[in-house]
Fold these 2 entries.
Entry 1:
Amino acid sequence: MFTDEAMSAVFHALAHESRRQILDILKASPGCPVGEIARQFDVSRIAVMNHLAVLEKAGLVTSEKRGRTRHLYLNAVPIRMIQERWMDDYSEQFAGRLTSLKQMAEAAVQQKDKDNG
Amino acid sequence: MFTDEAMSAVFHALAHESRRQILDILKASPGCPVGEIARQFDVSRIAVMNHLAVLEKAGLVTSEKRGRTRHLYLNAVPIRMIQERWMDDYSEQFAGRLTSLKQMAEAAVQQKDKDNG
DNA sequence: TAAACATGTAATTACATAATTACCTATTTG
DNA sequence: CAAATAGGTAATTATGTAATTACATGTTTA
């Protein structure tokens, strides 16, 4: 299962650059301890721990304590589920329908004008 | 281009169920006016307009004013870019490496225990 | 042209986020 | 065992989010 609330938690977790960086680190070094991650950021260790808590609530990170060190792991399952159940549906709009293609091209131009204006 | 800030804006926009519902509506009915969307929600019209502003800032929705009505369109480009540049990298973890597969299975069990406990 | 309609702006409020410092607990290790 | 190490809690603060009501603006249409 994958409730709306769970999906919100995942998107919210991904909506912060530091948290995305943490996932990058864990992807590259599974089992990395908390302190080693904190050392790679300019903000305080506590701030990083808060980010980790957000990631854990979203199910994107799991942890395992050995002795006094907590080892962290990326869990890509929620990302996979979002991609399968949601992203694919929206990306579809690119292929397939010609009707929406014209409309989306126009929309993209409008957005560009808005950004530059 | 697609900056960290832009990516944060997109994820943040997607992190609210009402905003995801708005995208669903616009996917089904391109050009839908503001009021018609607002009528489909329990919250106030102003609240819906705020959600639309968040979606527009993220580039997920564009609009075009004809007369007194503003017509809204889904723009799936940012979703597509996120999927290509980010989601795919993380979903990869499922295929390919057997080392991380064992680790992720264990992590998933741990997460399940945590949720039920 | 007056009323109805569609949207937009301003001010306000309750709550959540992201960060900080100071302190506490548990585990190694010299 | 004492000191260093790794992590966790608590209290606080500034800022951002999500929602509200009341009012204003511009556009059809009867």
Entry 2:
Amino acid sequence: MTDAAHGTRTQVAADELRRLIIAGDLAPGQRISERAVGEYLGGTSRTPLREALKVLAAEGLVTLSPNRGATVTALSEREVEEAIEFLIGLESQAADAACEHFTEAQLAEIEHLHDEMHRAFRAQQLMAYFELNQTIHQRIVEAAGNRVLARVYATECARVRRYRYAGNRRHERWERAIAEHDRILEALKARDGALLREMLRAHHRNGWRVARQLVTRELVSTTETER
Amino acid sequence: MTDAAHGTRTQVAADELRRLIIAGDLAPGQRISERAVGEYLGGTSRTPLREALKVLAAEGLVTLSPNRGATVTALSEREVEEAIEFLIGLESQAADAACEHFTEAQLAEIEHLHDEMHRAFRAQQLMAYFELNQTIHQRIVEAAGNRVLARVYATECARVRRYRYAGNRRHERWERAIAEHDRILEALKARDGALLREMLRAHHRNGWRVARQLVTRELVSTTETER
DNA sequence: TGGAGTCGTATTGCATGCAATATTGAAATC
DNA sequence: GATTTCAATATTGCATGCAATACGACTCCA
């Protein structure tokens, strides 16, 4: 189950909990009991678990309340929207530099991921598609050559990942998303930063417009005044 | 000594260590021994300290090596430059929205901070000046109304803070920085997002050009291949 | 002189136990 | 019946102790 069997127990626990949260196996708002997680991980004591929870809290994946324990962070619709606009801004920041700097090897990898993504779509493998999709965006951002940008992008992507995933369950959306990605790849190959920026922006806004509908009644904490 | 006497010991320890690192009282690369910090904080045991160190590591302020302990994160010149370019990108992202959204109250606060900053300059209080300067930039970013953006901006600012501080010790630079800030405020008051963006970008690039000279031989880890 | 091996010490990683706080459920009161 | 009180239980916060790993000094040998 826990394939990440290497590293310290804190590291293993953080990686496993992060995976569970990002993959959506733990619902937003759900309580994370130290003892329960310890047993789940096969007898890990609370000390490394508490350290792992602190790390995840710093990443924004869990929320800690003093003396009251940890819960999976629940984002309001507003907060998800802010995060997505923020991510659009990061990709915009990356677009020009990426078009200027990417190497042939980087382009080849992105094209490969793109083909794989098409394959996942034809095979109707939603999860595989979504993973590949995310990786493509990550690679584009990385191509800009700014490690700080790439790191923050990855972290903030992870935070809102589950809220965006749902959109692709609508088949029309999924189909359009693929088409948008074709144009994104074209803009990249043409090294047209301005065009790439616009393609990416539209892609994400379209995606969220659909995901928001589905997600609002499932995941998003609707109490907007909670914070 | 530790004025932050409230909250859990983990919180207190994290706050105090963060303060020490950001203020520059702990040098980059310096080792942080768990026992030593515990004694410094007046007999705190290692457990909450370890949790605090994990938090700071997630924020990028300290670097943890398994079985080898914690050190204050040392950034290469390249990494600082990437972080500053990233911060410029964040301010660019914020500029348009800030100009569109800021309220009179927000503008009034920024103007007040601006005046205070001038006062600190006239009194040659470098530290107070630098604090006010940072706060102004933070407030501008916050005026954009995106909490994710504001949070990331604050975190990444803190990471590179000490590397930028040095530049203002050059009196010509300090004088010019003030003049640049006057124009930044003008652009903001005119609600001219494009101009504000350019003013901010130039301000930071000018600042780093000077700070880089001073800092390279003091703080920055010159081994560029370390990562 | 230089390098590999070895032992002693210091430090980290983690489990455990206890005190403090929060939560639950039942009894009591209105 | 609804609400408050209070005790029993569960959970978190933190200190301590032990095992494992890393570091430094010393020796030995080429």
